[in-house]
């Protein structure tokens, strides 16, 4: 009975190890597929560069690369400026919301105080009405 339990325990542990290894194997296969795709893309890029290299001399390639770099730097600068503008607008909007929130909180506080005051006045008036009714009843 003990050895049967031990074997079951070992079987369970080995089953877990097999499951773990299968998971790792699947992950490695996916990684390998990604690497193959990256390799294919790199080979295509090399072929394209080779084809371009045959038709253009090194100076032309350098000039094209520099122009592309300048274009990309311009785009990055524009996007960076847009980002700064959007952040400034967001900050202004946040400040405006804070101000409006403060105004509304003050308004709610005022209305709450008015409601409280009116409730007190109502109680006073009710007491006066009861007193007057009592006087009328006496008369």
From TrEMBL:
Q: Where is this region: Disordered?
A: 1-26
- This chain belongs to the protein called GOGA2 protein
Golgin subfamily A conserved domain span: 78-139
- One protein family per Pfam: GOLGA2L5
Q: Which GO terms describe its biological process?
A: Golgi organization
Give UniProt keywords alphabetically: Coiled coil
- Taxonomically, the superkingdom here is Eukaryota
**Coiled coil: present as a keyword of the record?**
yes
Q: Record's InterPro entries?
A: GOLGA, GOLGA_cons_dom
């Amino acid at each position: 009975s003990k050895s049967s339990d031990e074997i079951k325990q070992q079987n369970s542990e080995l089953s877990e190890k097999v499951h773990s290894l299968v998971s790792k194997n699947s992950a490695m296969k996916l990684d390998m597929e990604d690497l193959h795709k990256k390799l294919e893309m790199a080979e295509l890029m090399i072929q394209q560069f080779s084809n371009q290299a045959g038709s253009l001399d090194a100076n032309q390639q350098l000039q094209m690369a520099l122009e592309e770099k300048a274009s990309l730097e311009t785009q990055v600068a524009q996007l960076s400026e847009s980002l700064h503008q959007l952040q400034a607008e967001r900050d202004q909007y946040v400040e405006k919301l804070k101000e409006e929130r403060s105004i509304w909180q003050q308004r709610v506080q005022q209305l709450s105080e008015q409601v409280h005051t009116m409730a007190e006045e109502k109680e006073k008036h009710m007491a006066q009405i009861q007193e007057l009714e009592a006087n009328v009843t006496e008369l």
